[in-house]
Amino acid sequence: MKQYLSEFEHFLNVEKGLSANTLENYRRDLVCFFSYLSELNLNSLEEVSRKDIMNHLTVLKSMHLAPSSITRHFSAIKTYFKFLLLERIIRKDPSSNLDSPKSWKKLPEVLSIQEIFELLSIPDKTSIQGIRDSAILELLYGAGLRVTELTQIKLNDFNPEIGYLRVIGKGDKERIVPIGDVAIKAVEKYIKESRLKILQEAECDFLFITRLKKPLTRLSVWKIIKKYALESKINKNIYPHILRHSFATHLIENGADLRSVQEMLGHADISTTQIYTNISRDYLKTVHKKFHPRG
Asked: What are 185-197's pLDDT values in tens digits?
């Protein structure tokens, strides 16, 4: 595997004009790759496949290497195989048509349905603040809202009779989002039992308000979510947007079509929504591995 490494370095130095530091990094990255191939009992460069390269990069990713380091590993491997093909040492380049790791999308973390239920059950539904917080959590998850969208909702935007919510999304684009019975009841309870007590004689157009009778801010929502995250037993980084990710993933897992989810999320491009199908596939793999007798 390493017999052409010196010639490759000479090629990089003379023809590509790369620095000594880059040459050393490439050498180290390729030695790491060769070590991985030897574990697969691959003894010839002709035996290396596209899948072997991708699997190696996936292993690096699982080791929590920085994206820039993984990209450099990929560049070293791809340049090496191009050199081998140029020198007619190999007849086929297994790295051709491989996408750079720069184009890989990081899958957002999501909560399981059980974890969502646990989180939503924590607020004290007998206190003024707990009733409000319960409505906030139910809407973030039940409608897949962004935090900014939640804080901009006005009282008139909530229509419990037909089960819809008017939302102003990115670029001031308006969309109508369906909301379920649980979220509707939580918001109605907040309006009747909590919001009126907070406002007293004051007036405010916004749906969610603070104890100071002011509209809720993004930072306030973040603090609310973090408070309940700490009270839960969920061993994940819980933040407001994870409820939106979970909303989309759970819909797709349960059979919702991508176009409908795109509309509910307010994505301009369906490719943005497609990332949740990847999460769903990973989830299905996890379930299969956990429960199948030969998983």
From this structure: 999 999 999 999 9
